[in-house]
Amino acid sequence: MASARLRQAFAITGVLGLALSATACGTGSSSNDGGSSNAGSAECAPYENYQGHEGKKVTIYSSIREIEAERLAESWKQFEDCTGIDIDHTGNAEFEAQLPVRVDGGNAPDLAFIPQPGLLQRFAEQGQIKAASAETKAMAEANYPADWLKYSTVNGTFYAAPLGSNVKSFVWYSPAMFQEKGWSVPTTWDDLIKLSDTIADSGIKPWCAGIESGDATGWPATDWIEDLMLRTQTPEVYDQWTTHQIPFNDPRVAEAVDRAGTILKNEKYVNGGFGGVRSIATTAFQDGGLPITQGKCALHRQASFYANQWPEGTKVAEDGDVFAFYFPAIDPAKGKPVLGGGEFVTAFADRPEVQAVQTYLASGEHANSRAKIGDWVSANNKLDLANVANPIDKLSVELLQDDSTVFRFDGSDLMPAAVGAGTFWKGMVEWINGGNTANVLQGIESSWK
Prior knowledge:
The protein is an alpha/beta fold and 449 residues long. The protein has two domains: 224 residues, Periplasmic binding protein-like II (D-Maltodextrin-Binding Protein, domain 2), CATH 3.40.190; 209 residues, 3-Layer(aba) Sandwich (D-Maltodextrin-Binding Protein, domain 2), CATH 3.40.190. The protein contains 17 helices and twelve strands. The strands form three sheets. Strands 1, 2, 3, 6, 11 and 12 form a six-stranded mixed sheet that branches. Strands 8-9-7-10 form a four-stranded mixed sheet. The longest helix has 16 residues. It holds the Pfam family SBP_bac_1. This is Carbohydrate ABC transporter substrate-binding protein. Keywords: Signal, Transport. It comes from Verrucosispora sioxanthis. Belongs to the bacterial solute-binding protein 1 family.
């Protein structure tokens, strides 16, 4: 599921932690206050390459709102003060629906944070977005893995650098429960299944899950399938699946679905704290992992952003009430497959000041500025882990920066919306409720036009 849809579901509520006070450069006031920037001050040295645009405005449109939007504004405040560029950001809960309307109506923003590579590709193919400048491209290539950059490259043209990220390949657990029971965090798929059997034999349902999410019901199950596609198949096969170069009912897809079913459709394993297998379809995704805090289940596969769903006062840390471990690979020798998502800074205008902002947002300076404020994950390899205070964010960044990581974007966000956010979601509900794998996959395949 796209990070944009998740932001529409709930606002990030983490504590600010290491709040970064955005100080003005030198004694000069920013152009936002009607004054002039002091570009020559020591504080402004990192922004030397972005000068010459004082008094210019750059508009940004995204799904990012409330606390998260305030943190973004804080993260680029010094850039504004030092360059004199006024960044005007607007967040909208209906971003994904409204951005195409604005663009088609001739009212496009200068920049947009697009979380769906398929949407970015549509704009590129219709000639509605601008190719990234040479400076932005060079900055992105220096700071991001090729696995990320391919999602904003269309027909050989590079359009956008990544911004924020999330990691979905996590299993949540209770460190205290594991210590009390003598369980160890598994590092292979076989160890994960052995642990699940051990927990089940102890009288506790090892897994709990929930895929109910209003109109988006089913999306958490699609993440399971995507993670298992990355673990049972090669990255190349995953790419062929998300682009329909192989059919949705290909035997290799069925293999991944059935592998997920060894956990999700196993009455011995699920659904701790809620009921049997079918209770997964009626359990809200926000509630899916909560039985861990009640000792009613031990494991919950969900993304890094689930850290915000635990009850108030829950300590999320390796020595805390809950934490997460990497969802193990089936064959560790093939590297670490990681499923995730994120936004891409896409330009609808190519004025010099717009290009300057787009380049800056791909820089290590911005990644670290935003990280210091708290609750931030990025695949930017210039991000210093020392600036990432939140333990689950730190774990996410470590995975993204690991040379053995093989990253792939959320599959449903790469597919046409009618499939990825339509029949795929609905098919997973049918599957959980007893649907036959072959029939469910045939139904999804038939919907892909």
